[in-house]
Design goal:
GTP Cyclohydrolase I, domain 2; alpha+beta; two-stranded antiparallel ribbon; four-stranded antiparallel sheet; cytoplasm
């Protein structure tokens, strides 16, 4: 049974490496074993990195992804490799955050999706980017992200 469910996964159980760019990265999905249940799955990437497209300097973010699965779950190793593919990718904070959301929405077609990108200050200004697919479905518990707003040294 497990072999039948998990066929076509090229990264799980292999020595896969992160792609050179997010566009080249392969996101994979697996069947949701509980499509009849409304629940929230969360992924947190507290050390997300990308490159400023203007200065070439590294940018850092704390990314929180919440979604209510429908028929599929994102395969976590493919998600980790996808997020790693941004390390040498030059893009603004808004572009990175929304691109992640678009790719996951396309792959999963979830009942609900939310992404929070808490970006560390660049030029003294933190840029936080948030998006959700719509209202939280009735009965779905979506906890706070748990990330404090930037307060500098205060």
């Amino acid at each position: 049974m497990a072999e039948e469910i998990y066929t076509g996964l090229g990264q799980l159980g292999s020595d896969a490496k992160a792609a050179e760019t997010p566009e080249e990265a392969t996101l994979e999905r697996v069947p949701n074993p509980h499509p009849d249940m409304l629940y929230c799955a969360r992924f947190v990437a507290p050390e997300f990195t990308s490159i400023c497209p203007v200065t070439g300097q590294p940018d850092f973010a704390h990314i929180v992804i919440d979604y209510a699965p429908n028929e599929h779950l994102v395969e976590s190793k493919s998600l980790k490799l996808f997020l790693q593919s941004f390390r040498n990718h030059g893009a603004f904070h808004e572009d990175c955050t929304i691109y992640i959301a678009k790719r996951l929405m396309e792959l999963l077609e979830p009942r609900y999706f939310r992404i929070a990108g808490y970006w560390y200050p660049r030029g003294g200004i933190p840029i936080d980017v948030f998006w959700q697919s719509g209202p939280v479905p009735e009965g779905l518990w979506v906890p706070e992200t748990g990330v404090a707003p930037y307060r500098g040294r205060g």
